Amino acid sequence: MVPVKLLRLGYSYTWLIPTADTDGDTVRCRWANSTATVPNNIRADECAGICNTFPNSRLNTSNCRSMSILSFE
User: Fold this and answer.
1) Neighbours of 1 (CB within 10 A)
2) Where are the domains of the chain?
């Protein structure tokens, strides 16, 4: 289980998202999508209501780092 982190408003945070691939394929990260199409053309809500929780966040898809600056908006 992922530990709970307490964050302070006005500070910048960067997270490395753990990834792994046993046969060496390139792994890329992406944001969840509330209207994703998964295999067999099935529509799925990957967000379960939490998409856009951090609206000022950026995701580097190649190295799987997410950066957020927390503020009131």
Assistant:
1) 3
2) 30-63
